[in-house]
Amino acid sequence: MKYLVIIFTLLFSSMSFAQQSVDLEINMKNTGLAYKQAVQATQLSEFNTAIDEFIKLVKVSKTGKFYKKPEQSLQGLDKVIAQAELAKKAANEQGLSAAKEPLKNIDNLRKKYHELHEPPGFFELLFGS
Q: Which InterPro entries did the record assign (predicted)?
């Protein structure tokens, strides 16, 4: 009986760990910080550290639960990852200034895809969309 209790405890505890989802709000704040550090980097090593962290965090965000238009959200994150990888490649091959355009594209994508997840405004709730 004692072994049965231990087995059930382990089984259910492992299931609860597997079901923990990503806290997108916290992850996105950390992603924003990594992006800011990449933009403000003055040394290539600083930039590479920040952009690698940024890419890692965006990939973690892809595992989160998107309630509004999940397909579009995932496509947007894929585009962000592609731009971040392009920025890293450009910086390593041509210098930090070459990464500015892909980094700007990331910010534009952020603005575009954040609109998918903004809560409705007062007038939208009152009068519909």
A: Cyt_b562, Cyt_c/b562
* Token code pair at residue 116: 């998918």
CA 114 to mean position of chain CA atoms: 12
CATH fold of 22-118, please? Four Helix Bundle (Hemerythrin (Met), subunit A) (1.20.120)
Ordered by start, the domain boundaries in the chain are 22-118
Q: How many CA atoms lie within 13 A of 82 on its CB side?
A: 8
- 68-94 residues labelled b (16+ CB within 10 A) or e (exposed): eeeeebeebbeebbebbebbbebbeee
The set of residues, in sequence order, having a beta carbon less than 8 Å from that of 110 and lying 6+ positions away, is 80
Say if residue 6 is exposed, middle or buried (CB neighbours under 10 Å; 0-12, 13-18, 19+).
exposed
State pTM to two decimals: 0.74
Rounded to an integer, the average pLDDT of 53-60 is 96
Q: Are 85 and 41 in contact (CB under 8 A)?
A: no
